[in-house]
Each structure stands twice: as structure tokens, then as C-alpha cells.
């Protein structure tokens, strides 16, 4: 991991654990799907780029016979992950370790390897996939979670800006992430997708399936609070880079006095899709 990235991750928003909690419903569906693919529950599961270990803990809860190892290169997330493991009473079966996927991981191979939204951060994503394949026991499953559809939280154009506001916000955000994390062209250009990259890494691609995150209106108060923090964070990242009318629209969304803002809207929801690319090794 580049030193600049390490710094960015250390200062990454405190939202990652809450992102993971919001995403528990689709993650659970994806784990059900993976468990159905395996002849028996895996003895070992590896969660690479585990962040605050939300998925590691969920898998341990769903598969009581499995030992789970979460690996991440960012010590702050590992501390958060270790606290979560202990809070949920999973310390006997979930362990979190520091490791850098781009330098190779010193952990035993596992029957199931889960790598969510980490490979696109590597300067050489195919080398990362090769390493993930090495960490997958022969005949085991490697699940790489990348892409899907962007999150939407209000109907249509959100009612606060000119038509196309959300698409323009997304485009500016995408450029921001590419620049800030120096994301490689191979995974941002759209000319190749994960099944092709997996083939290049000598993995046998089995399937790609998307899971919907669908929290309909009315949302629970914690979801509204989460979305307010998320949009405030969006402002911190890209507010000044937006055209003035779009900046004004984004500011309205977090204004508690605005009847069209997130504070007050009764039609607030969460809709997103996440894609799991599944491969095996021989
Ligand atoms: C977008 S977060 C995803 C976290 C979690 N998997 C999830 O889906 O919520 C990416 C994670 O990958 C980790 N990461 C980035 N580069 C890494 C590398 N080279 N080796 C290991 N972890 C890395 C970051 O520290 C961060 O926790």
C-alpha cells in the first residue's frame, strides 16, 4: 500500500463500520449464496481488506463451525475490527491481522476467501487476484466484491437541483476517488471487467451476481442519521469541486431547515446493488 494511501485510510471516515452495518442485509444474502455453493461450511474463511471486520463477524455468526481471519493493511481499522469482534463475543473464532495484499499475505489458505472493495485499490489488480487465488484452497471459492450500481436515497433527481444533479455528483466523486487513491486505469477505464481480470490471473470464473440493498421508506432513524453523516462527508470530499448550482443542491440536502433535505423527507430510502464475482482455483 502506498504511504499516501495508508494516511488516507487512517483518516478515512468513521463511516466504514456503519457502511458495513447498513449493508448487512445484502451481505447476508451473498454469504447464504456462497454457503450453498460449498459442499460443507468452510473450516477457514479469509476476509481480505476486512476494514472494521463487519463481514468477518457476520460470516462467523452465520457459520458457527468456521474460523475467520480478517486481514487489513490499516491498523486503525484493525483496532476497530478487534473491538467489534470482542463486543460480539466472537474472539474465539474471529482474528484480525495486519497484512498488505500487494506484498503477499502470510496466512494459511482458506476454503472461502472474501475480498470486498479492496482489489481495485491495488496498483496491480491482477497480481492481487493471483495472490488471492494462492490463498484460496484448491477447489475453494474466491469472492471478489467490486462494482454494482451506485446508491440512491431519494426519488428521481432528489428535487433539490437541476436535472442530472446526482449523475454529475457521482462523476465528480468518481474522479475524486481515482485521484485521491491513484486508482489504476485497468479497473476504472471500463474496458475490462472482473471476469476477464480473473481469467488473466488464472482463476476459473464461476459466476457474477449482484445483490440488492433495498431499505424502503420510511427508513429507521439510524439510517436517516447515517445518510446525513454520509452526505456531510460527501460535501467534505467534493463540495468545493462542484459547479455552484450542484454545490447548492448538495448543501440543501443536509440543511435541517430545508423541507427537501434529508432531515425532513418522508420518502428517504436506500437502494444500491453490489456485485460478487466468484471464482475457483485448481
Ligand atoms: C473500501 S474499504 C472496504 C472494507 C470492507 N472490505 C468493506 O467492504 O466494507 C477497503 C479496505 O481495504 C484495505 N486495503 C487497501 N489496500 C490494501 C492492501 N494493499 N492490503 C490490505 N488491505 C488493503 C483498506 O485499509 C480498507 O480497509
Description:
- The protein is α/β, with parallel strands linked by helices.
- It has a single domain (3-280), classed as Vaccinia Virus protein VP39 (Rossmann fold).
- Helices cover 41% and strands 22% of the residues.
- The chain has helices spanning 3-10, 15-22, 24-37, 54-62, 75-87, 125-134, 165-180, 185-188, 194-200, 221-238, 244-253, and strands at 44-48, 67-72, 94-98, 110-116, 136-152, 204-215, 270-280.
- Strands 3-2-1-4-5-7-6 form a seven-stranded mixed β-sheet.
- Strand 2 (67-72), helix 5 and strand 3 (94-98) form a beta-alpha-beta unit.
- Helix 2 (15-22) crosses helix 10 (221-238), helix 3 packs across helix 4 (54-62) and helix 10 (221-238) packs antiparallel against helix 11 (244-253).
- The longest helix is centred in the last third of the chain and has 18 residues, at 221-238.
- The two termini are 28 Å apart.
- The model has no long low-confidence stretch (mean pLDDT 93).
- The structure holds S-adenosylmethionine.
- The site of S-adenosylmethionine (SAM) has 20 residues, from helix 2.
